[in-house]
Structures
1.
Amino acid sequence: MNIGVLALQGAYQAHQRKIQSLGVNCILVKTEEVLREVDALILPGGESTTMTYLLQKHELWQPLKKRVEEIPVFATCAGIILLQKLGVLDIEIIRNGYGRQLESGVFPLEVDFEGKIEQVDGFFIRAPIIHAINDPGITIMAYHVNTPVLIKKNKILAATFHPELSQDSTIHQYFIELITSHIV
Ligand code: GLN
């Protein structure tokens, strides 16, 4: 199994290290050829405007849209904004939505892994707010200050925070299990 991390801009290396620490191959995706090779994809945090610009400049916008509809995807922070802009997640987002006081920091989160509740550290860095979910097929796995921060739709997992910066690997491990169940 080969997981790819979109590596045009942003926090992609921390995701790669996290996946590799779990014993799974993880490669950086910068071209359409590599995008076609991977079995699953991570869209990292960073700046969604810069990522959008670079994706369009390198003619990767349409290929990415096609690929994220085919394979399991894990999006974090700016990555979730990309999924919304690609039209893959029917949600409404407010960029940098938590305002000054809660803009960045680490907050404990309770995550509902299909009935099993686990605590994880939520690293929020100028995080977007999911302010509406229009698709009833989306489930909410965690909240922070009454807003959804980890959501799932079929083989798409999306966090407004940065699980790749956390000591624990719970969410990445869950994503690997999601991929495995999708492939089988
Ligand atoms: N504020 C960034 C954006 O709007 C996202 C921040 C992040 O990915 N850590 O694109």
Note: The chain has seven helices and eleven strands.
2.
Amino acid sequence: MKKTVLITGAAGFIGSHLCDYFVKRNYFVIAIDNLLTGCLENLIHLQKNPNFKFFQIDVTSSFEIEQKIDYILHFASPASPIDYLKMPIETMRVGSVGTENILKIALKNNCTILVASTSEIYGDPLEHPQNENYYGNVNPIGPRGVYDEAKRFLEAITMGYHTFHGLDIRIARIFNTYGKRMRHDDGRAIPTFINQAIKQKNFTVYGDGSQTRSFCYIDDTVEGIYKLLKSNYTKPINIGNPVEHSITSLVNIIKKIIPSNSKITFKNLPENDPKVRKPDINLARKILNWEPKTSLEEGLRLTIFN
Ligand code: UDP
């Protein structure tokens, strides 16, 4: 019997890749998105597929899904710093009200729900690399607080539904992910630098560029999420690529792939911008038998040329 999966945030970057993955594996996908930061273009190729149905729904509103659901993947949220700075209240509400709404639907269907948490719950980390036992260093009233605290709330209430109602949960702490379908104007480092290289514009590096991130190619992230869903692990687990790069070295890799005369223009580092970020993925290796396979250069080539 075909299983049904409900995906929130389906028109977003990761959400739309999840739709592809599950449709391809012969699940029936119910995709919902309020299109605040998501884009229907990301799903257009699925629109005529009999295993796919899209509804424009805001998970913070009250709504019902008639069909019986087997799995839920909750990925609805603005996820780029410039987006959640522009939409602080919406970001808080989707992580809180939206998450509780979707947990109630999971409970009603007695189904497994996987929620998208984030490396941002570690804030500007004082432990490096970050493993799942680290509680984080988040400024609740800083510019990134709306996203970080909403996701911390998401983890807490999801765990509450597990311990109090016995709901079957999964919590993925997703680190920086990249690939096709990131909006060119979403402000994040990879789409911004690719765009700048293509247009022969200077690279806007914030701070001195020594801050680090660990970038995971979307196909690796999606596979990790699938393996987590299919596991029976109910505590948070890091999904990310443990290979760490400084922002300057990211620029250099992009320059190698797209030759340009672009130079670096240094700009002010945004407030509370984490200085380092690198997942400890030993737990994912052990529990999920998963680790990323795609190097940054390989993944960037796939993103740029495919
Ligand atoms: N960044 C940068 N120039 C840009 C965009 C981002 O130097 O045009 C830096 C940003 O300050 C951060 C890193 O790149 O240190 C990653 O930023 P991104 O927004 O991609 O992800 P996040 O900060 O949420 O990890």
Note: Residues 103 and 158 are 7 Å apart (CA to CA).
